[in-house]
Design a protein that fits this description.
about 375 residues, mainly alpha, about 0% strand, globular
């Protein structure tokens, strides 16, 4: 029977395992995908259906004429096979079903791959409707999760398969980028209200979907908003780096970031963004730490390993490592990378909308002309 330290923060010399962290993260990812597809399902026909605001079938027809053979790279989607309303709704319903299978633990790696392909298919034809920060983050999280999700089909076998430590650090890298870039984009935006710490005086009543609590938070004293802005920048720009110190600091990092996301969640509405950020925090803790937070019997069951672990052949380990390093490099961005790598990054279908803003604007204008009867 496994033994766990009595002190959550105690340093341990034994190798770390992440069976519990993987189990919890994949369950959370499945739930978030379900929320994303369920939310999209009720809006689908009105947004990109045949009589929607920007019909997917019309966009694909326009892309076929304008992009030629490049359309498959510029607009990576299953809807090239058909984009009728029943096909759109069918794939969305399939996405919800796949999400449930991921939560159950059936064929995790292949289900995550199918979910990524399905959501990317919608994002590629939905333009601005699925180009928000949470949509982009969900797609990128799914790519990272492919390295974490086990390959076996049966839940019992999948849960007992070993966790590659590199997959844990890929997701931690994504969390680091998310938080640090969230802080940097505010400071580098040129908006003086962020630099002089007054932006939160206006934030709560200018955010996309304020809730009832936003009203009361917005009326707090200016001094509270100023202190909140200082704390926000500290959490976004400094706290994430603590994950590289040791497991004790990773625990504090997770606690602070989860509390921060809950604060945002209660004072505004950013779709499933905050839930996804919290899910990424789950991989900051190892099994020994999770065992102190979960019921003992559950922790022991989730952390059990089979008597004989299957070790991947050397060539698979090298391929896996090379792919992981490549993903880290391309995720750094266009400006930092050398031109060949940057062009590869721009071609990768991991963004919310594969069409550029200029291309999508051209389609919107084309659609408006078609609706009004004006010539192109």
């Amino acid at each position: 029977m496994a033994e766990y330290p009595s002190d959550l923060f105690r340093r341990q010399d034994e190798p770390r395992s992440f069976q519990i962290a993987r189990w919890m993260f994949l369950k959370a990812l499945g739930l978030i995908f379900f929320i994303a597809f369920a939310s999209l399902f009720v809006q689908l026909k009105g947004l990109i259906g045949a009589k929607g605001i920007l019909p997917a079938a019309e966009l694909l027809s326009w892309a076929r004429e304008q992009l030629g053979e490049e359309r498959f790279l510029e607009v990576p989607t299953l809807f090239w096979l058909g984009a009728s309303d029943w096909i759109l709704q069918g794939l969305c319903a399939a996405g919800m079903l796949l999400s449930v299978l991921l939560m159950i633990g059936f064929a995790p790696r292949w289900i995550v791959l199918a979910l990524w392909i399905s959501y990317l298919s919608f994002a590629s034809v939905s333009g601005i409707f699925l180009s928000y920060q949470w949509d982009i983050l969900l797609l990128e999280t799914a790519v990272m999760a492919l390295f974490l999700a086990p390959a076996p089909l049966r839940p019992q076998e999948a849960r007992g398969s070993p966790v590659w430590p590199g997959s844990i650090w890929l997701l931690r890298w994504l969390l680091l980028r998310l938080m640090v870039l969230s802080g940097l984009v505010k400071l580098l935006s040129g908006d003086e209200t962020w630099r002089n710490l007054t932006a939160l005086r206006f934030h709560y009543w200018t955010q996309p979907l304020p809730n009832a609590i936003s009203f009361y938070v917005a009326h707090l004293p200016d001094s509270v908003h100023t202190v909140s802005a200082v704390l926000m920048f500290a959490v976004e720009l400094l706290v994430p780096w603590m994950m590289f110190v040791n497991r004790r600091f990773r625990l504090w990092t997770a606690a602070i970031l989860v509390a921060f996301q809950l604060g945002i969640l209660f004072s505004g509405n950013y779709g499933f963004f905050n839930f996804l950020a919290i899910a990424l925090c789950l991989v900051l803790l190892d099994d020994q730490q999770w065992a102190r937070l979960l019921p003992e019997r559950l922790a022991l069951r989730l952390s059990e390993l089979p008597p004989k672990l299957t070790v991947a052949p050397p060539w698979i380990r090298w391929v896996r490592l090379s792919l992981a390093v490549g993903i880290v490099l391309v995720s750094i961005g266009n400006e930092i990378l050398a031109p060949p790598v940057a062009s590869t990054y721009r071609a990768l279908p991991c963004r919310s909308s594969a069409l550029s803003k200029h291309q999508h604007l051209r389609f919107v204008l084309h659609h408006d002309h078609q609706q009004t009867g004006d010539p192109d």
